[in-house]
Specification:
Number of strands: 12
Order of helices and strands: HHEEHEEEEEHEHEHHEHEHEHH
Structural class: alpha/beta
Radius of gyration: 20 Å
Shape: globular
Helix content: 25-40%
Distance between the termini: 44 Å
Strand order of the largest sheet: 1-2-12-11-10-9-7-8-6-5
Strand content: 15-25%
């Protein structure tokens, strides 16, 4: 049967739309392997709660001294790929009258998804954008995000109180609007976790979030009262068993309570790990894909 030119045009448009949709699904829902042989070969010592709880083997001599050219300062070159810096820029955003300094990696608009990382005390936007510290793990995060059509933000949070929460809520709204409502994932480290917990109480931010990651953070006993909890959005914890700043047992207790209630949560404990261990060791691809699948 012969088709008219208009029919062919419509079919071509539909095919292009479907291909575009498939590409976005691949980018946002299943990030492909990226240096997995270096970052994703961690030994699992123990699992529990149907696989939602895991204990990972961590050894400082192997995972710091054996991985870094200069311990804790510069990862070996094989862990780092600097091509992603072509899409990296420092900028200051004006969000509801607040000025927020960020490092952005990836497109300013039309991103397939957004990842935002919040540093801890005495940090700034440079911490989450440094390619060589923490064993090159931030470089991998940048490549996983921008390399799959997403955008990564590392902002400077001046305070971890309501003002800091409001600033990040503004960034969540901005990035969601710039991407046309695509998924936003928020990751917070150490004292920065106070910002994450604050965001869980903001209903507008929760509507825009896909999931959240807490590394070496504080515990929020009132989390179950938040809009985030009620929305049952995925929540991933990562902690070192010997964290001297925030005890792992406190976060494990919250995880246990959530898991028992059927909440979508995962806990990764790094055996003998210290306060900064999760930032170095977290498998960003595994974690992001788990959230996207939630």
């Amino acid at each position: 049967m012969r088709m008219s030119t208009s029919h062919c045009t419509i079919i071509t448009a539909i095919a292009a739309f479907l291909l575009l949709g498939a590409a976005e699904v691949r980018a946002a829902d299943m990030l492909p392997p990226y240096k997995d042989e270096l970052f994703s070969t961690q030994k699992v010592l123990q699992t529990g709660d149907g696989g939602d709880f895991e204990v990972i083997d961590y050894d400082e001599m192997r995972d710091i001294n054996g991985r870094d050219q200069i311990p804790e300062k510069r990862a070996q070159q094989k862990y780092v790929s600097l091509g992603v810096k072509k899409s990296q820029t420092d900028e200051t955003l004006s969000l509801d009258g607040r000025r927020l300094d960020v490092t952005r990696v990836g497109p300013s608009s039309g991103a397939a998804f957004t990842v935002i990382f919040i540093h801890g005390r005495n940090g700034d936007r440079r911490l989450g954008a440094n390619d060589y510290t923490f064993g090159g793990n931030f470089n991998r995060l940048k490549n996983l995000t921008a390399g799959n059509g997403g955008v990564y933000y590392s902002p400077t949070v001046k305070t971890f109180d309501s003002d800091g929460v409001a600033a990040i809520a503004g960034l969540i709204r901005y990035s969601s609007e710039q991407s046309g409502g695509k998924p936003v994932i928020l990751a917070c480290a150490s004292m920065g976790s106070q910002v994450c917990w604050g965001v869980t109480r903001d209903a507008d931010s929760v509507k825009r979030l896909k999931g959240m990651i807490i590394t070496s953070g504080v515990t929020d006993p009132d989390f179950i009262k938040s809009p985030y909890y009620k929305a049952k959005l995925p929540l991933w914890f990562a902690h070192g068993s010997r964290d001297p700043v925030y005890a792992a047992a406190d976060q494990q207790a919250l995880f246990g309570k959530l898991h028992k209630a059927g909440y979508p949560t995962h806990f990764t404990l790094y055996q003998t790990g210290n306060h900064g261990t999760p930032i170095r060791m977290i498998d960003w691809r595994q974690t992001l894909n788990w959230i996207f699948a939630g």
